[in-house]
Amino acid sequence: MKTIKTEILLMEGSSFPVIKEIYDPLSRRHNGIITPQAPIIITGCNLEMLTWESTRLCIIPAINDKILIELGDVHRCSKDKVCATIPKAVDEGEYFLALKISMKDKERFVYIFSVPLIVTLGEYGRADMYPYYSDRDK
Question: What is the DSSP letter of 31?
């Protein structure tokens, strides 16, 4: 699988997705900090490509760009918003959104967006839902 860059897509005249913001409705954060096993809302333009049959929206760990973790339930909410679900089996750390593109000739490409995501687990994986839980209560 090859990694492609924005410059290549622009030369070919593709209108590629531009991500402006990622919102985590569970924690109500707009700063790229996301919760596993929860939805995210991606805002931007040209986002229809994220929902095509030949593409898969993924996240890639910053420490290993060979691992692709596909997001679930990817669908358009509106013209400039796409919703997706972060999988349960995601460890804490830094990730980047990526788009896996399958071509008709069976060749696959990965485009990595420059938007960083930070996965935090907290207590039970959702610190905002259980703010009063502490280690001494175990």
Answer: S
pLDDT on residue 134: 40
127 residue type, one letter: A
pLDDT averaged per 10 residues in sequence order, the chain, 138 residues: 54 71 89 88 87 86 89 89 89 90 78 88 50 41
- Global pTM value: 0.76
Among 89, 92, 53, 102, CA closest to 74: 53
Q: How far apart are CA 53 and CA 61, in angstroms?
A: 24
pLDDT attached to residue 138:
41
Q: Which two tokens stand for residue 115?
A: 């938007």
Q: Which of 28, 21, 4, 3 is nearest to 116 (CA)?
A: 21
Structure tokens at 38: 């929860």
Quick one: tokens of 71?
């997001």
Residue 73 and residue 85 in contact, taking contact as beta carbons nearer than 8 Å: yes
The two three-digit tokens of residue 122, written as one number:
């907290």
- Give, in order, the Cα–Cα distances in Å from 75 to each of 6, 30, 31, 53: 23, 19, 22, 11
Structure tokens at 103: 């071509």
